[in-house]
Amino acid sequence: MEFRSGCPIASTLDIVGDRWSLVILRSMVMGARSFSDLLAMPEGISTNILSERLKRLEQAGIIKLSEKGSGSKRGAYRLTRSGAELLPVLKSLATWGERNLPDRWTIPARFKAMDPDDPSLLG
């Protein structure tokens, strides 16, 4: 991947700074594993955008796709250790939004309690 600069913030945003990547990661933290799970996100992502973002996140080592199994056409998506380390970023964004934006969803207690070392996050 090519980065705009050597700045770690700018380089991270080159990977996850679009309008969908962090939402995909949020859904994966909350248990989405399949393409159809992610396609069903309430934000309404299109199949071509979802495919492209999953490919980008996989190439960056943030998620991985497990082998196909038990009748699924595709495997299951899981966070890598690198992806799980984005959890504090997701939690900070969620907390800021809950505090500063009116009429937002309440952050689930399960999400607030999660830790990057939580084995349920990793693939």
Automatic annotation (TrEMBL):
<dbReference type="InterPro" id="IPR002577">
    <property type="entry name" value="HTH_HxlR"/>
</dbReference>
<keyword id="KW-0805">Transcription regulation</keyword>
<dbReference type="InterPro" id="IPR011991">
    <property type="entry name" value="ArsR-like_HTH"/>
</dbReference>
<keyword id="KW-0804">Transcription</keyword>
<feature type="domain" description="HTH hxlR-type">
    <location>
        <begin position="7"/>
        <end position="105"/>
    </location>
</feature>
<dbReference type="Pfam" id="PF01638">
    <property type="entry name" value="HxlR"/>
</dbReference>
<keyword id="KW-0238">DNA-binding</keyword>
<dbReference type="GO" id="GO:0003677">
    <property type="term" value="F:DNA binding"/>
</dbReference>
<dbReference type="InterPro" id="IPR036388">
    <property type="entry name" value="WH-like_DNA-bd_sf"/>
</dbReference>
<dbReference type="GO" id="GO:0006355">
    <property type="term" value="P:regulation of DNA-templated transcription"/>
</dbReference>
<protein>
    <submittedName>
        <fullName>Transcriptional regulator</fullName>
    </submittedName>
</protein>
<dbReference type="InterPro" id="IPR036390">
    <property type="entry name" value="WH_DNA-bd_sf"/>
</dbReference>
